Each structure stands twice: as structure tokens, then as C-alpha cells.
Amino acid sequence: MRLVSGSFDIFPWVYFGNMSSELKPTVTIDVLESLDIRMGRVISVESAPDAPKKSYKLRVDFGKYGVRTSVARLTCHSVDELIGLHVFGVLNFPPRMVGSSESEFLCLGVQVAKLDSGEATPITPLNPNVKIGSKLF
Fold first, then answer.
1. pTM (predicted TM-score)
2. Which of 18, 42, 46, 53 has the most crowded CB, counting CB atoms within 10 A?
3. What are phi and psi of 97, to 5 degrees?
């Protein structure tokens, strides 16, 4: 397991690497409540060619919380599949540089079976009639 260094050190359970590792230690609900996880809608997608691994640069509208950028490994999907999709993002992590792009939020996803570690599909609601900016609870 490789912990993310730098700006994510305040949340030591966030890591990249083998996504199917053992369960993490038990935490209190305060940990979840400290994260500002909100619903957004993808408004643009482009390749992030200088990211360390194949990635997209997403622009996501979080309503009154603004439009934010994230560099995410969602490349098993086409650009057309992602445009307009509702995604969850962690808005209160500090920004971090991924290649030459500043990633302003963490787009939440899950690993896709039989693809490279970290290759993900975004977590999205079953009902498309969700309010942009809504908090996950």
C-alpha cells in the first residue's frame, strides 16, 4: 500500500495502489462527517496527457459550490459517456497537482474488474433527478 503524500496527509486512509486490499481500521462517524462529499454533474471532459497514468481532466458543476476540476482515472469510459453524468466529489481535500493540472476535488469511484489498479468507474446515483450540490449522508 502506498499512502498519498503531501496534501492528503491529513486523511491518511486515502491511498492509491492495490484497491482490493484488506479492510481499514474501524473509525467513528466523525470521520465521514468531516468529509464534504457532494453531488455534481460533469460538464466537460478532456484527456490529461501529462498525468502519471492515463486520466481525464473533468470539469464538474457542484451548483452553489462552483465548477471544479478533477483529474480522474475514468478512461475505461468514453468522453460522451461521462458528459452529463452525476458524480460524487470530496470537496474539502486541499488541491493537488496531477501532472500540470490542479485537481480541486476527489472524484469518487470504484475499481473496474480486470483493469489496471486505479482504473475506475464513477459512483453515480440510480435516480438521475438529484439536486446538484447535495451532500452525501
1. 0.82
2. 42
3. -80, 130
